[in-house]
Amino acid sequence: MPMIGEPRAVDLDLLDVESALLRAAVGDYALEAAVLLLANAGGWLPRLQAAGLIAIALDGDAAGDGPWAAVQWADLDRALRTGRIAGSSGELRLLRAAAGLADGQPVDLADLTAGVDRAELSLVLAALAHAAGSHEHRTDGDDLLGPVVAWPVRAP
Fold first, then answer.
1. Up-side HSE of residue 133: CA atoms within 13 Å toward CB?
2. How distant, in Å, are the alpha carbons of 7, 16, 102 from that of 63?
3. CA-to-CA distance for 37 and 95, rounded, in angstroms?
4. What is the C-alpha separation between 155 and 150, in angstroms, rounded?
5. Predicted confidence band at 67 (pLDDT cuts at 50, 70, 90)?
6. Interatomic CA distance for residues 104 and 98, integer angstroms
7. Per residue, what are the HEC states of the chain?
8. 79-124 pLDDT tens trace
9. Quick one: pLDDT at residue 9?
10. Which residue has the higher pLDDT, 60 or 123?
11. pTM score of the predicted model
12. Neighbouring C-beta atoms of residue 73, cutoff 10 Å
């Protein structure tokens, strides 16, 4: 049962939800990649937020930085089966890819690659590159190489 004053994902604007998810994911490249994949895909964060599939928590040491959040990955299948969340076939493939990165849920790569459009494929490739840590790779001279596939620039 929520306590009075306890933050809820539905009470936060989308930017705050994304920030809270990223705050909790920092340092775990696969989890960061999953959050960034959902955020860059555009439609998933508001749907997950509205369906109550994002949990918010305050960390005593980091409360000044804002809340932390986590997608309730284990509840996705039930939410999809019951119609609490829905999406196009490409969107669902992106959601499954994010769940695979964040929670180790199985992903059929043949189905994934056969069913996404070019923009969605770019997001999946950027997510895989991020999860592999390619944004931190360096040359032998210690120069930062940058990601193998960069995240697309989002419109303001």
1. 6
2. 11, 13, 24
3. 8
4. 15
5. confident
6. 9
7. CCCCCCCCHHHCCHHHHHHHHHHHHCCCHHHHHHHHHHHHHCCHHHHHHHCCCEEEECCCCCHHHCCEEEECHHHHHHHHHCCCCCCCHHHHHHHHHHHHHHHCCCCCHHHHHHCCCHHHHHHHHHHHHHHCCHHHCECCCCCECCCCCCCCCCCC
8. 999 999 999 999 999 999 999 999 999 999 999 999 999 999 999 9
9. 56
10. 123
11. 0.87
12. 19
Amino acid at 138: R
**Residue whose tokens read 């999953």:** 34
| Amino acid identity, position 6 | E
Angle between helices 29-41 and 118-131 (to 10 degrees): 160
Gap between the Cα atoms of 56 and 71, Å rounded = 9
Task: Please report, in angstroms and rounded to a whole number, the separation of the first and last CA atoms in the chain.
Answer: 37
Per-residue pLDDT at 126 exceeds 50: yes
Planar angle of CA 93, 85, 81, nearest 5 degrees: 80
